[in-house]
């Protein structure tokens, strides 16, 4: 019942996205070494469904133990902790394509109240009739349609009066929500969301803002409240956090492994970029050194690299380098469909075949945590709280040795939000004749 209630809350309130870089460990995970976050651990039982397994949003800003999923970099099954603290609470709110700044206060600019129906039925109606959708991710065209009564008040527009750039992502293979709507049509409710022009939307801070809003705007709803601690507070800028010791040591010319986790899924896609540690940590700086992806992606559960599920993002049409910012930079689509079809409409099929319980739960909006392996919205919904999206990024051979900051940026599609984490890394020159880092799949020793 708790899982169903949380899923209903997410659908009704438009919960904020919540995601973070999991390795290299980001700067904004510093509170993970403090109580109460040190008390969390995943998985806590084999079913992933015990009361202590559920990750939770911070709704009121004190003693809430809002936590973020984190998988072990060691690659050892079950060696999971919540040491990422509140890293998944750092983002920029109210950011749309074409605008010079975010508004800080809106997570669904001009949309979010729309509802879809499956052959005229809501999820509740399907549940009452004991029906399910055979393919709730990508049903036949027309099966999921906007409820026009709910669509009347939609304003499909950016949050500025004079947008300077237009969306560039129209390919249905790259889209993650309402994927069957004609690009730019009156039904394309996510047209101005950040993912529709990867990297173009503004941010409040390039490394995220604690709580996602400008100072003075107060705290947000939908689980966006940040719990203050002795090391960071609501409204702190991620770019101003203290430099830490290197969370990883990389060699120029190698392709190291990186990963991120999602707590509440809002589609879109992501990229990795570098900046010299002594440079201003701004978007302009990070745009000068975008990192290309190298090889396939993978999903990883419980930190167990032996169970990696690899998939080729480029071959699936899930990688894009045209219409991106900076020009030519590579972005990959978030490979986890959320399944909130009543708000998002058609999405896309996950990289694995889901169980009958998962499909049935998706259809009726009542799936329990742990029922789905490769899809879901998490936070009490069907997605496991410890699945990571893992990639390799190619470091230029010409990269000068020194201290750098890695930026992970997630441009959402279902919300007008950009999530970010930044990690301290050390780059060293490869020794003459040194063997490159092993590439056994996506993983490394």
How would you describe what is shown here?
The protein has 445 residues and is mostly beta strands. It contains six helices and 16 strands. The strands form three sheets. Strands 2, 5, 6, 8, 12, 13, 15 and 16 form an eight-stranded mixed beta sheet that branches. Strands 1, 7, 9, 10, 11 and 14 form a six-stranded antiparallel beta sheet that branches. The longest helix has 12 residues. The N terminus is likely disordered. This is Chitin-binding type-4 domain-containing protein.
Topology of helices and strands:
Blueprint: H1 2-13, E1 19-23, E2 90-93, E3 116-118, H2 123-128, E4 144-146, H3 148-151, E5 209-210, E6 248-251, E7 257-262, E8 269-276, H4 283-286, E9 292-293, E10 297-301, E11 309-311, E12 319-320, E13 331-333, H5 341-344, H6 356-364, E14 387-394, E15 402-411, E16 417-428
Parallel strand pairs: 6-16
Antiparallel strand pairs: 1-7, 2-5, 2-16, 3-4, 7-14, 8-13, 8-15, 9-14, 10-11, 10-14, 12-13, 15-16
How confident is the prediction overall: mean pLDDT?
A: 86
Give the oligomeric state of the chains in this entry, treating copies of one chain as homo and distinct chains as hetero. single chain
Fill in the CATH topology of the domain at 97-114 and 154-203 and 246-336 and 383-428: Coagulation Factor XIII, Chain A, domain 1
Q: Tell me about the largest β-sheet.
A: 8 strands, mixed
């Amino acid at each position: 019942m708790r899982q169903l209630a949380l899923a209903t809350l997410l659908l009704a309130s438009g919960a904020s996205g919540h995601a973070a870089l999991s390795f290299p460990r980001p700067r904004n995970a510093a509170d993970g070494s403090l109580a109460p976050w040190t008390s969390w651990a995943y998985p806590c039982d084999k079913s992933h469904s015990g009361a202590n397994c559920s990750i939770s949003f911070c709704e009121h800003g004190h003693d809430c133990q809002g936590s973020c999923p984190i998988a072990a970099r060691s690659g050892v099954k079950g060696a999971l902790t919540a040491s990422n603290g509140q890293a998944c609470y750092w983002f920029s709110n109210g950011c749309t394509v074409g605008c010079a700044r975010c508004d800080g206060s809106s997570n669904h600019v001009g949309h979010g109240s729309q509802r879809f129906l499956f052959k005229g039925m809501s999820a509740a109606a399907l549940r009452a009739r004991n029906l399910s959708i055979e393919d709730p991710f990508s049903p036949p065209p027309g099966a999921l349609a906007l409820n026009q009564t709910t669509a009347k008040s939609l304003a499909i527009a950016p949050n500025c009066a004079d947008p300077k750039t237009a969306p560039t992502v129209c390919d249905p293979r790259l889209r993650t929500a309402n994927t069957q709507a004609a690009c730019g049509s009156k039904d394309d409710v996510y047209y101005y969301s950040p993912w529709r022009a990867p990297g173009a939307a503004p941010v409040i801070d390039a490394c995220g803002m604690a709580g996602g809003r400008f100072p003075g705007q107060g705290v947000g709803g939908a689980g966006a409240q940040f719990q203050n601690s002795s090391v960071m507070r609501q409204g702190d800028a991620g770019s101003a956090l203290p430099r830490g010791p290197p969370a990883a040591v990389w060699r120029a010319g190698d392709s190291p492994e990186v990963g991120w986790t999602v707590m509440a899924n809002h589609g879109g896609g992501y990229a990795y970029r570098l900046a010299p540690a002594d440079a201003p940590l701004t978007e302009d700086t990070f745009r000068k050194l975008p990192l290309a992806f190298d090889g396939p992606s993978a999903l990883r559960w419980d930190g167990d690299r032996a169970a990696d599920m690899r998939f080729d993002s480029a071959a699936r049409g899930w990688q894009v380098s045209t219409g991106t910012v900076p020009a030519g930079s590579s972005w990959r689509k978030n490979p986890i469909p959320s399944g909130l079809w009543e708000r998002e409409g058609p999405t896309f099929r996950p990289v694995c075949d889901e169980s009958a319980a998962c499909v049935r739960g998706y259809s009726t909006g009542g799936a329990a945590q742990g029922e789905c392996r490769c899809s879901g919205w998490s936070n009490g919904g069907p997605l496991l709280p410890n699945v990571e999206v893992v990639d390799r990024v190619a470091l230029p051979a010409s990269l000068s040795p020194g201290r750098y900051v890695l930026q992970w940026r997630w441009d959402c599609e279902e919300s007008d939000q950009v999530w970010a984490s930044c990690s301290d890394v050390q780059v060293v020159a490869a020794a003459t004749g040194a063997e490159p880092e092993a590439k056994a799949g996506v993983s490394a020793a």
